[in-house]
Predict the structure.
Amino acid sequence: MAKRVVLAYSGGLDTSVAVRWMIENLGVEVICLSADVGQEGTLDGNEAKALGAGAIAYHQLDLREEFANEYLAPVIKANALYEKQYPLVSALSRPLIVKHQVALAREYGADGIAHGCTGKGNDQVRFEVAAMALAPDLELVAPVRNWGFTREDSIAYAAEHAIPVGATKEKLYSIDDNLWGRAIECGEMEDPWAKPPEGVWSMTQQTRTDPSEVTISFEAGVPVAIDGRRLPLHELVTELNHTVGAYGWGRLDMVENRRVGIKSRETYEAPGALAVMLAHSDLEGVTLERDLQRTKISLEHRYAELVYDGLWFSPLRDALDAFIDSSQQHVTGEVRLGLEPNRCYVVGRKASRSLYDYGLATYDAADRFRHADSEGFVRLWGLGLATWSSVQGPGSKG
Ligand code: ARG
């Protein structure tokens, strides 16, 4: 049994109760780690809450830059959207947090790491599988999965043990957010037919109606500037969340397949993430050679699946990253996005090494394409099918 654990501490009711519950029921010492990954809520007050619950130490880390550069950049290059839609908001923050939990565990000589996830979700899988990949010697402790508390039990436990938990007003939704987006689940949305109430949205409240444009510049597949202003990636994404979110665009409503076998109704808002990926994949349209682009597209969903499934730290991701990085060499250029209420769409793109050749594409007098070559090409392209048709297919009848 572990003697000392590093807990991923959000400062919410569950993780606060978990601190004391682990001390009392498992006899461990607890070190709390709170990570700033660009979520809306403040972490102010977490230190007092963690120590008040009985933690022997509290660490707060600003991980926004690392999150953007090491986790978001690869996913942008990969155009990774789980089940064609979800930009992996929560799936991306877990391995980063675990990496820092493991580092703290080493610093404190801890022999376990803990999280506050339930047994029904994907996040437990990501925390634990990432820890198994980085530090298979560490014990994994998941108090919330085992204690069998209802929300009322947790509130009562906190009161009994004088654990400072802040306001414990009824929690309508399970929300997880960071600078890449926001996931909102539970409540009335557990009925997949029910429309999400307007109140669940926060990053995509529409405040602008005037049409506008935003230009995103990319270098080797990574966004580096907005309207010509160079910005570190975490600031660029945050700014786009505001710019694009103000048009009410960037919402998702889907029923997705969780790793643990459940289909669940999920709503997300990720205006910056979806705008960046829309622009990035468009730029690939002019910069990637056809077969490279086709093969990359065939691997993109595999990439999203492995991230979703908690396999961030894996040889498969290393290998896919090597392929994707190689593909991004010339993905340098600019994409113009048009913005209108509830709309964000590509209106133009250019690249220094664009493969778009006007002389080949145009239908006007500048046309350099050798039309006559097509005759023989098409004849050979269809030859196999023509043979099949006349012997076995529609052409063989009658
Ligand atoms: N369904 C999403 C995922 O698995 C979001 C999870 C959100 N987590 C939460 N605790 N609300 O990545």
Q: What stands out?
A: The chain has 13 helices and 14 strands.
